[in-house]
Specification:
31% of the residues lie in helices and 23% in strands. It contains six helices and twelve strands. It has helices spanning 22-31, 90-101, 121-142, 156-161, 203-211, 226-241, and strands spanning 5-7, 17-19, 39-43, 48-55, 63-71, 80-85, 106-111, 149-150, 154-155, 169-172, 191-195, 215-216. The strands form two sheets. Strands 6, 7, 8, 9, 10, 11 and 12 form a seven-stranded parallel beta sheet that branches. The chain has a five-stranded mixed beta sheet with strand order 1-3-4-5-2. Helix 2 runs parallel beside helix 3 (121-142) and helix 2 packs parallel to helix 6.
Length: 244
Amino acid sequence: MRRIRLHVDIPLTVSESLALPDGAAEHAVRVLRMRDGDAVTLFNGDGHDYEGVLENVGKRTADVRVHAAHPIANESPLPLTLAQAIARGEKMDWVVQKATELGVTNIMPLHTERSEVRLDERRAAKRLSHWQSVAVSACEQSGRARLPHIAPAQSLTQWLASLSDVAALRLALLPERGRRARDLEPPGAGAILAVGPEGGWGKRDLEALRSAGFQALQLGPRVLRTETAGLVGLTALQAHFGDL
């Protein structure tokens, strides 16, 4: 039987009975059609899975009695930040979902010189909430017990200015020939990978990235789409320095 994992944004304690938050309860009862006595695994991002059993299942509500907690040690030893120029529509959802499955630590959505997507304050807040939900679903599926941090969207220049004290290896997908992951020194403090938009980095973007110490990462002889490139880069870094 498939193991059901649900994220809940509440404290969890063994031997307690708790009411599932509305979203999790509705998903369990109306979507998954779970019933009294069904086993469920909860996680809240603290690095543990909490085993429990459903009780008092109603039309849209349910309680869970938690009976065990287990630490989950499947986070990558390599802290990775993906700084991704915001892609159109479902492409950005795909990036968030797959980057989460690959074990990314942080996701930084970026507005760049050639970005085709521009979010005002209201839309930015709505999209951030949506991307966080996508990451939660990816954690539920992949078995991660810690959520990646997704920052509010910023301009490239704002984000670069915030990196002055960050010691991580700085990599970007740039037009020039770069170094392959296998040729890099192990990034003890983790790595940042910056990926441009559909139309590529603009001239000012490239100057800003190079001035901030970013070096080119080469992913092979073929041109990759923005929603593919970052995931391939993360995979290469995880394969050489992480846990793939």
